[in-house]
Amino acid sequence: MPATRTETDSLGPVEVPAEHYWGAQTQRSLRNFPFGAPMPLAVVQAFGQLKAACAEVNAARGVLPDHLAALIVAAAEEVSRGQLDAEFPLRVWQTGSGTQTNMNVNEVIANRAIAATGGVLGSKVPVHPNDHVNLSQSSNDTFPAAMHMAVAIELHQRLIPSLEALIGALRHKAETYAGLIKIGRTHLQDAVPLSLGQEFGGYASQLELGLAGLRATLPQVLQLAIGGTAVGTGLNAPAGFGEAVASRLAERIGLPFTSAPDKFQALAGQEGLAAAHGALTVLAGSLMKIANDIRWLASGPRCGLGELVLPENEPGSSIMPGKVNPTQCESLTMVAVQVMGNNTAVQMAASQGNFELNVFKPLIAHNLLESIELLAGSCGTFREFCIEGLRADVAHIEAQRDRSLMLVTALTPAIGYDRACAIARHAHEHRLSLREAALVLGEISGEEFDRLVRPEQMV
What we know:
- Helix content is 59%, strand content 8%.
- By secondary structure, it is mainly α.
- The protein folds into three domains: 4-135, Fumarase/aspartase (N-terminal domain) (Fumarase C, Chain B, domain 1), CATH 1.10.275; 149-219 and 262-395, Fumarase C, Chain A, domain 2; 404-457, Ribonucleotide Reductase Protein R1, domain 1.
- The strands form five sheets. A two-stranded antiparallel sheet has the order 1-2. A two-stranded antiparallel sheet has the order 3-4.
- α2 (41-60) packs across α8, α6 packs parallel to α12 and α10 runs parallel beside α12 (361-387).
C-alpha cells in the first residue's frame, strides 16, 4: 500500500496519508496550523449529527438523491458515535470561522461513503465533500450550529447531572446536621450561632441559583445558525432548510433545538454562548466560595478551626508523616480560576464579530467545552471524595460555640447593647466565660443568663 495518495482542492494537488479518510483541505490545515489543542471531539461528533440531519432534509427536499443521502447519513452517524475520532486531527487555532474543521468533516464523510461503495478514496465519486456532504450549507452556519449543539449536549449529559448530584449531597449534609449548632463567622470573626445544616443548606442554595441561571441560557444555546449559509441570507439553501434541520436534530438527539430567528445575529454574534459561559462563571464563583469554606472549616486538624474532618484520600506530604491535605478543595478552586480565565477569553472573543461573521468561534468552542468538562468532573469528584465522606467534629464544634463571646447578642433585648458589650469586653479581657463576666459585673442573674443565652434558640 502506498504511504500517501493524491487529493485535490481548489489550490491543486496535495499528498495525504493513505490510511486516513481526510482530504486536501484537512492536510493543508495540518501543515499550516500544527500547534496547540485539538478541536474538541464534542464539536466533531455534533458535526456528525448535523451532517446526517442536513442530508436527510436535502433528500426530503428533493435536492439530494436518496441513495447518496443514505451513504452520507451512515458515514455521518459513525462520526457522531466517535467511531472515526482519529480522522479529526485539526487544531483549535485555525481559521476563526472553523472552515477547515467543517471541511475535515466533509472530506471524512465523503471518503468514508466512497469506501463503503468500494470506490477510490479522493475521487469524490459518488459522494463529493462540497457538492453533496456540504449541500445547502456553509462553514459559516455549520460551525456555529455544531458549537451550540456540542455545548447543549455536554451541559445536559455531563455538567447538569454532576451539579445536581453535588447539590443533593450538600442537601443531605444539611439534613444530617440540621440540629448541630455552631458559631457563625462574619469578617473572619466570631458571630452569632447557626446550625451546620443551615450552613450547608446555604451552599446548596448557591449552586441551585447558579444552576437556574445556567438553565436560563439554554434556550439561546439551543438556537442553531444552520440555514443562514454564508452571510445569513440562506443563499443556496432550500426554503425552510434551517427549521427542518433543527427539527430533525431535536428528534435525533432529544433536545429541543430550534432555528435561530435571526441568522445574521447567529453568524455575526455569539451572545448565546457568551451568556452560557457567564453562567458557568457564576457557578465557578459559588464553587470557589464553598470549597474555600470547607477547607478553612477543616483546617488543622489540631491547630486550625477543625470543625470538619475531611476524608483521608491520599497522603498529603512527602516530608511530613501523617499529613492529610484538602486536595479536592484545592482542585475545585483551581478549576474555578481556570473557568474565570476562560470566561475572559470567551467574552472578548464574542465581541469580535466583524460585519457578517464572528471569526473567533473555535476559541469560544474550546474554552466553553473545557469549562464544562472541568466543572462537571470537579463537581463529581468533590462530591464523591469530599462532601459525601465529610463529617463534623461535634465535640469541638460545641466547645467552640460555648466559648464564643457573640452569644452575648441574646442579652441585648433584655439589658441593651452597651451593657451587653461591657460583658463581652470584660469576658475577653479577663479570659472569663460570658456567664462569669455577667455575674462579676452584676448585669444579670445567673438564672436569667441561662434562660436567655441558649444557642439552640438563636438559630
